[in-house]
Amino acid sequence: MGKYIKKPLLARQCKYCNENFETKQDRKQFCSNLCYTNYNYNKNRDQQTRQCKYCSKDFVAHRVDKIFCSRDCQWSYRYKTKRQKLVKIECKECGEKFVRKCSGHKYCSVKCRNKSKTCQGYVHTVRREDGTYVSKHRYIIEQSIDRRLKTEETVHHKDLDKENNDVENLHLFKNRTDHGLCHGSLNKLVKILLSKNVIEFDKNEGIYKFLE
């Protein structure tokens, strides 16, 4: 067997970044795979010199819709223009003015939001001893059983009035499944009332009504 002949290193200049490098391959023209990819990506593109919309620096754009020199300038411009559009509104609970960061904000803080009615109709007006806020109907049950409710436990309003937080009107379920079965029983009662012609479905308004 013949001896292995070690090839000498050849000096080359990268075709993309013009950096000097050494290689054993005769046909290698790029110092790295990144330069090879960038060269093939940019060789068939029209390079235009433009001015960055944010920092006003000149840069080479390879795309028609490219108006920023970097991603940092792009996000900085978006943040700046978005901040300019922010307006001050009055808090729905305390009345103080605050800067609204999105269209859905109505309260200046979580504290004010918890004090007001939520979209589900529950009233958040109670603060525990540890400083956390809780729905009033859950707090009343906690005081009646002398312990803090678990996350999976659910409180049900017997008369379906979410503002009636009398302890006799509240019932504690162990989990949401049992609470769902309770509400599901209403559908069975509706079916019976429909069969007995006590109520009917109004097609115009899309609701159930008592028969006159």
Task: Outline the structure in words.
- The protein is of the alpha+beta class.
- Among the domains are: 9-44, no CATH class; 117-174, no CATH class; 176-212, no CATH class.
- 28% of the residues lie in helices and 20% in strands.
- A hairpin with a 4-residue loop joins strand 11 and strand 12 (207-210).
- The termini are far apart.
- The mean pLDDT is 83.
Q: What would you say about this model in short?
A:
The protein has 212 residues and is of the alpha+beta class.
Total count of strands? 12
The overall pLDDT average reads 83
Secondary structure category: alpha+beta
What is the N-to-C order of secondary-structure elements (H for helix, E for strand)?
Answer: EEHEEHEEHEEHEEHEE
What share of residues are in beta strands?
Answer: 15-25%
Largest sheet: 2 strands, antiparallel
Helix content estimate: 25-40%
Radius of gyration: 35 Å
Strand order of the largest sheet: 1-2
Taking pLDDT < 50 over at least 5 consecutive residues as the criterion, the unreliable ranges are none
Separate helix tally: 5
CA-based shape: elongated
What is the terminal separation in angstroms? 108 Å
